[in-house]
Amino acid sequence: MKHTDVVIVGAGPVGLLLALELERAGASCVVLEAREQQEEVQKALSVGPLGAEALMRRGMGPELDALEARSQALMAPFLSGSGGGWRQSGKEGRRFAGHFAGISLLSQEQDRQRPTRLIDQRHLQGALQDEVERRGIMLRRPCRVTGVEEGQEALILTFTREDGQVERIACRYAVGCDGARSTLRKLGGFAFPGTDPTLSFYQVFVAFDGAHAVRPAGWQMQPGGVMAYGPIPERLFLVDYSGPPPEGQTIPTQMQVEAAIERVCGRGMKLSAYRGGRCWTDHTRLVDQYRQGRIFLAGDAAHIHPPFGGQGLGLGLVDAANLGWKLGAVLSGRMPETLLDSYEQERRSVARDVLDNTRAQTALMRPDPQSRALHALMAEMLSRDEPCAALGARMRGYTMHYDTIAHSADCPALGTLPGDQVLPDGRSVFGLMQQGAGVLLVPDQAIHAFQGLTIPGNLVLASWHEAFVWLLRPDGCLVWQGAPQERASLNTALVRWFGASLDA
């Protein structure tokens, strides 16, 4: 029987990033995936800033740039001045920066500094898989996990290969990254409470026939729901409030899509071509806990919600970044196992906020007169910069604050994930983190007092022009700010998050 530190169930973007985090931390892992090949169904069209930055901290900035250039070339007709609802006129021609319940959000300064990246989830997953293979991380597919047995020293997973052979693998921990229908969540006995489905979503690729050949771009309120066309050519997104799809229907036929268009738009529109797609519903659920013994959950295995605003992918990537370095620190012996308790403490409340705002968007888009009146009022409010910026910051995760224990009234950024910045020597903060390290930023004039000290492992010392010290965890979270002479307080934070203090 093979032994490894961590078994990851699911080879989507969340599972693959977690594997890369563990590899950088020196932990061994095996990824088990039920599908024979990467799923080619269109899902998210973008990666939120916090999810993108989790990848940039591990050196994937160039890959993201290349993937975004590929997407932008494809979306160019919709992002240009002719793009209708995907680009807002006026306001100095500022670009469409997402939506809230189909209401366009104008880009703000924070969006230009830390942009949402226009990247197809399928292409991102391909890049992550290439990196996993390049680093020699074991990825086994297709294989289906069928059993879990927890002992005092290890967790044993049973899985079945494509040829029917049954194998077992022992590990210290297992992480379910296997999506909304998570096998590991079910085998682990996690409760998954939430709200039942009420509607149908369709994301399909079509060409319209005759008089309907040219569709207006952007989100369009319709009598029975919402139609959105673009920003990828031929992409059609429908929100059908007539009820959830039949049980088990995930791949709709052309006839079913045409029927859904008629229900949503109140009139029939024939398709001259149908290139496939998916249908799903608005289950909204959050696990009762993120951990059961040696089993953890991340991404859609822990939380599912309507796809509005493309928040799910970024939410899952930050789950992986948060859990990965903590598992690595515990497995290396640098940190006690109690560090793992902070994963649920930090991430569950973030997921709850996302579930709430997607529920609110679902309510705003209902086709009844009351909801449409509320939608119009919300659209008028979001045409102003201040409420638009506030809501955009919330959806992108900028308002998130982890409880870091260290508190400072002078540092509202404490417990957040600050963006990258260039240091005086030309290096970047994210560049210092590419091997999974945290960063201790010290004022230029005080750096000499720190250079003679023994710095805890997995921490990089660097200088900057600010007058205060920042301590950043490997996942980019700011966990301490203070003056260089506040050594005792800094040491408390270092022991809490890095397992050791500064020693002379």
TrEMBL record:
Its cofactor is FAD. It comes from the Bacteria. Keywords: FAD, Flavoprotein. The keyword DNA repair does not apply. Residues 4-358 form the FAD-binding domain. Pfam families: FAD_binding_3, Rng_hyd_C. PANTHER family: BINDING MONOOXYGENASE, PUTATIVE (JCVI)-RELATED, TRK SYSTEM POTASSIUM UPTAKE PROTEIN. This is 2-polyprenyl-6-methoxyphenol hydroxylase. It comes from Asaia krungthepensis NRIC 0535. The lineage of its organism: Bacteria, Pseudomonadati, Pseudomonadota, Alphaproteobacteria, Acetobacterales.
